[in-house]
UniProtKB/TrEMBL annotation:
UniProt name for this protein: Flippase-like domain-containing protein
Membrane-spanning parts: 12-31, 47-64, 135-154, 174-191, 225-247, 253-271, 278-294, 300-326
Keyword presence, Membrane: yes
Domain of life, per lineage: Bacteria
Keyword Transmembrane: yes
Membrane topology value: Multi-pass membrane protein
UniProt-annotated location(s): Cell membrane
One cellular component term from this protein's GO annotations in UniProt: plasma membrane
Pfam families: LPG_synthase_TM
Key words of the record: Cell membrane, Membrane, Transmembrane, Transmembrane helix
Principal cellular location given in the protein's record: membrane
């Protein structure tokens, strides 16, 4: 028992401690190369009206995400009011600031418990939600490569080891071997005739997970779901693009530069970190550098945009948890009244 507890502790330290250490190290590495006083001077030039408008658009991106998830859940007969879904999205991003990736698990647990639904089914719908984001980023990356391929070539020339590492990962036989082995394991789980209780439990969990994932293929309102996807990512892009107008050194760069910055910063969010702290900054500073923005100026831009977004997520998270607490009290009160 003690050994199991020690192993669980080590796994949690690795899972949640590593992103914190990575974020701290990347920020330290990055900002030791920046003239802090010069960066402060650039920050003083910021027009915060544009930052405020960008933050308002950011709120709408979360609401659209809740509305898109609602379509998937409704197709699973998990009919959830919009408010709890919005709270779950706000809470997810707030939790991810402290524990990367834990927010997605939390929102699945919250909705499953509130609606008295199967957790694995709700979790499967969340996985599908996130997979849609991955596909969107891939499509944006490919499109942007054709629009501004010189930016990606510059990235490969400046960071040849990273660029080659990405190519090696994609073509690695080990990666494809794991994919094939996983597929074969799934086939065995669903075709083998066994009475082993653990295999049966795993089989049911996978089936429930797949149910939540595969619902996108048969759900109604697919057009509206796609429209919400465009709205989500349109808001993401616009909040960054509008931030360009907040600084004199980025307001003239144009939409292509904003698109390159947006795509590379979105890709960087795949690296486990606390709300993008570290990887997001590096991606933004590098992207702006391609278009002639100095290191200190780019660092000021990244610091203000990320800092404002983080403050907003904290506030939205507090609002969400207050809303959830009041909602729980209201539901409990109604249940007691119905009993009486």
């Amino acid at each position: 028992m003690e050994k199991k507890k020690s192993m669980a502790l080590l796994r949690n330290l690795f899972k949640y401690g590593l992103p914190i250490v990575l974020s701290a190290w990347l920020c330290y590495y990055l900002y030791t190369k920046v003239d802090i006083e010069a960066m402060k001077e650039e920050i003083s030039k910021c027009n915060y009206i544009w930052i405020g408008i960008a933050l308002v658009i950011s709120i709408f991106s979360h609401i659209f995400r809740a509305m898109r998830w609602s379509i998937q859940l409704n197709a699973l007969n998990i009919r959830t009011p919009l408010n709890p879904l919005v709270w779950s999205i706000f809470g997810t991003y707030a939790i991810n600031l402290i524990f990367p990736r834990l927010g997605e698990l939390w929102r699945s647990i919250y909705i499953a418990k509130r609606q008295d639904s199967q957790f694995t089914t709700v979790f499967g719908s969340m996985v599908c939600d996130r997979l849609a984001d991955t596909v969107t980023v891939l499509l944006l990356t490919v499109s942007t490569f054709f629009i501004a391929n010189s930016a990606f070539i510059a990235f490969g020339e400046k960071y040849p080891e990273t660029y080659q590492g990405i190519l090696n990962t994609i073509s690695s036989p080990w990666v494809w071997g794991v994919v094939v082995a996983g597929a074969l394991l799934l086939v065995w789980l669903f075709t083998s005739r066994t009475t082993n209780k653990w295999v049966l439990k795993v089989r049911k969990a996978v089936a429930d997970l797949w149910e939540g994932f595969a619902v996108i293929g048969r759900m109604p309102h697919k057009g509206r779901w796609l429209l919400y996807t465009v709205a989500i990512w349109g808001c993401y892009f616009m909040q960054l693009y509008l931030a360009f107008f907040a600084f004199p050194f980025t307001e003239h760069l144009g939409i292509v530069a904003a698109l390159v910055t947006f795509v590379l910063s979105s890709v960087s969010m795949g690296i486990p970190s606390n709300g993008g702290l570290g990887p997001w900054h590096i991606a933004v500073i590098f992207s702006l550098g391609i278009y002639g923005v100095g290191m200190n100026q780019a660092a000021a831009f990244a610091m203000i945009v990320w800092g404002a977004q983080t403050c907003l997520l904290v506030l939205l998270g507090l609002y969400a948890f207050i809303g959830i607490a009041l909602d729980k009290r209201s539901v409990t009160s109604k249940q007691q009244q119905s009993i009486n």
